[in-house]
Amino acid sequence: MVTADEKLSATFAALADPTRRAILARLSAGEKSVTELAEPFEMTMPAITKHLKVLQRAGLVERSRKAQWRPCRLQGEPLKAAADWIAQYSDFWEQSLDRLDAYLQAKTKQKVKRVRKK
User: Fold this and answer.
1) What local confidence, expressed as pLDDT, does residue 108 receive?
2) What tens digit of pLDDT does each residue of 91-100 get?
């Protein structure tokens, strides 16, 4: 059984490659065949297939069969899990920046008071 942490690691590992991110961007417009996905890339079909297998293992892409056509489809659940994980740290950074802003405003007020006293 694959844990949530392992799924998240597989998602980030798959997203680490720009070609795989570009494939996901193309799939966000709808289902495409492997040949359609390979069009903009200057690489061999086996190389594209290798990238697709990484995306499939991460659960980001699903392949099905419709007669002779084997479309690839984007699966959004792993991306949602990754976005949720990142959002936790977004809250942390927003709070840290708010504290920094409050500190700098207090320091600025102190400096203004010193200048007025002189």
Assistant:
1) 94
2) 889 999 999 9
**What is the SS3 assignment for 32?**
strand
What are 88's two structure tokens? 């936790």
What predicted TM-score, i.e. pTM, was given to this entire model? 0.77
CB 78 within 8 A of CB 40: no
| R_g (Cα) of the chain, nearest Å | 23
**72: exposed, middle or buried (Cβ count in 10 Å: 0-12, 13-18, 19+):** buried
Residue bearing tokens 């936790």:
88
Q: What whole-number distance in Å separates Cα of residue 52 and Cα of residue 74?
A: 11
User: 11, 79 in Cβ contact below 8 A?
Assistant: yes
Location of structure tokens 């976005």:
83
